[in-house]
Amino acid sequence: MRSPQQPAWLGLGTVALQELQSSLRDRQTVLNAVVLPIVLYPVLFWLIVQGFLVVQGHKERTAVQVWLAGAAEQLAQVEPKLVEGTDLPTEYIAKGPMELDEHELRALLMPPTGAAPDPDRPEAVLVLPPDSDSDSALYIASTRSDSELAASRVQSDLTDLQQTLRQEAAAARGLSGEDLVPLRIENHTVTTSRDQGAFVLSLFLPMMIVFMSVMGAFFPAVDSTAGEKERGTAETTLLIPIPRSRVLLGKILATTTLAFLATLLNLISMGLAARHLLMTLGPSVPIDIQFPFLALLYSLPLILLFCFFVSAVLTALAGLTKSFKEGQAMLGPAQLVFILPAVIGVMPGLELTPLTALIPVVNVVLAVRAILIMQWLPLAYAITAGVLLAAAWIAVRLCVRLLSLEALAFAGTSMSLKDLFLRSRHANS
Amino acid sequence: MQTPENPGPAIEATGLFKTFHSRERGVVNAVQGLDLTCHYGEIFGLLGPNGAGKTTTLRMLAGILVPSAGVARIAGVDAGIDPIAVRQRIGFLSGSTGLYPRLTAVETLRYFGKLHGLQGAALEQRIEELVATFRLHEFASGRCEGLSTGQRQRVSIARAVVHDPDVLILDEPTTGLDILAASDMIDFIESRRSAGRCVLFSTHILSEAERLCDRIGIVYHGRTLAAGTLDELRAESGAQFLEQIFKVFVERASLAPNA
């Protein structure tokens, strides 16, 4: 019955397909690799933006009361203009001259804890200057959101009032208001709304690639190593009549496939969610988000290499543990190794150069960002690919080296990093 | 009865040693110079108490542990040098070789069949044979996680012999099985001997060894204390029943100066 030796790739492919099939039958893996990327994260993104819009709308509808203090003639001049100028529910009430010390102002603006809302209590007090050499003073309670809101509205209304007063003064001298502004600047952008859309996507999609690769690889990596020990199938896998290195590579390839799938699904889903959001915001937002098919297509090799790198690292680390719980505890902090550089990668001012392309994780974020805004940087892209390939190769070697240790291959065994380096190495073939 | 391509013994272990380094237990010499030889068409029983080194020995013979010293040959292949060739030649079953819970019985057989180089119609035909032989029809398409202990054991045996190996190594194969499942296992072991294959199995159920084994090896503290047919062991120990024979050899080993 013994059959001739099969080609190396056949055994590798058989193991990888079995691992993939097994992972896709695990509810937790499917949830993390398929359902969450497609549904949850875009929905969360959509909810956050919608929530922001709701809060913004609520702020615009919130009524605030501002007391005006000053001489009667000043108030007579300023109050009608402020009332006329404001287009939000801000009520300006002229109170005449007020001599309030700090304690009285605090008592006025900060209600006692637990006190019922008092419609006659102001959110801000604006004290007009006694003479033209002094400044106005605006008193608010900066721990009250409605008081902060009142402050921003007063600032805005005062800016408009200053402009009106300048124009009136100029008109009294026979000048136009325009003459008072010696240099006027009007901004014009040469980027199209579609370019703007690509730029918006480039701010968050590259970071999502890192997040989703790590998220997508997390459960399959733990499941295929620590999970295998927990299920009592580690020894069964050791009986597979192909080299241990090929079995481990098969596991890494299956994890890579799921990480890549999760990343791709999430990018598509997030891109569509962003486009839908901007469409709902209407023409007031001069941004046109097109789904970046071409950019993503160009990014695919880099994303795939990155997923391979992440999968090898997470599989190696999870293999040091003996149960699913331990594996999750090990990979939790390990995720930060990828996520922190990804956050650094989206910092403003950081761009893909041959030098930054040498930093793993940061380079993939910067490269995808550059591809999204269609920058042509062949050398930097090539370096990024080379660095990711080298990092993935080292990670695979490390994974095979570690998980071929007899002490780690069997069920019920885990090993500290210290032990790993102190112990004599008996690698299984 | 011998397999023509391998004229020598099916299993040959000479001076096998295995040392483990454990953080909790320090250096553990699990196997210390164990010798044994098994032939085709023979059932060899490895007897010993818990911790005697039976499982470690079987794992070295199966090519999943590398011996610290000594030689283990399966069908003439050195397990320390070419463990993959050894794994291709043996069927191994133990309490630790669980089934992949998310695969069905048939998928399990197909997976291991492919890894042993079977393909296409030959593979499917072999799966059909195994399903019939081990009466897997009723649960062949159900995931292994849903099977009973007895059903799992039947699938495990089928998995171990999917490539029809010349050598079968079984670590306490009837432990945890009910009477019917244990009886099926014993019938299966006998059937392999009838087919001219070599079966090496460990057990601490003496009646099982007495009934099945052509030869028996008594292992204690990682060493072979005695090996031979039941009659040879009776003669050497002066005891009649296997339980008494076992005690005699263990007591002798305990009293020996280097024990």
Looking at the chains present, what oligomeric state does this protein adopt? Answer: heterodimer
Averaging pLDDT over every residue of chain B, what do you get?
A: 89
Strand content of chain B: 25-35%
CA-based shape of chain B: globular
Average of pLDDT of chain A: 84
What's the alpha carbon Rg of chain A, rounded to whole Å?
32 Å
Q: Uncertain spans of chain A, ≥5 residues at pLDDT below 50?
A: none
Which sequence of strands runs across the widest sheet of chain A? 2-1-3-4
Structural class assignment of chain A: mainly alpha
Helix content of chain B: 25-40%
In total, how many beta strands of chain B? 10
The helicity of chain A comes to 55-70%
N-C termini distance of chain A: 24 Å
What is the H-and-E element order of chain A? HHEHEHEEHHHHHHHHHHH
Nearest-angstrom radius of gyration of chain B?
19 Å
Number of strands of chain A: 4
| Major sheet description of chain A | 4 strands, mixed
* Contiguous uncertain segments of 5+ residues of chain B: none
The chain pair forming the largest interface, with residue counts per chain, is: A-B, 39 and 40 residues
Largest sheet of chain B: 6 strands, mixed
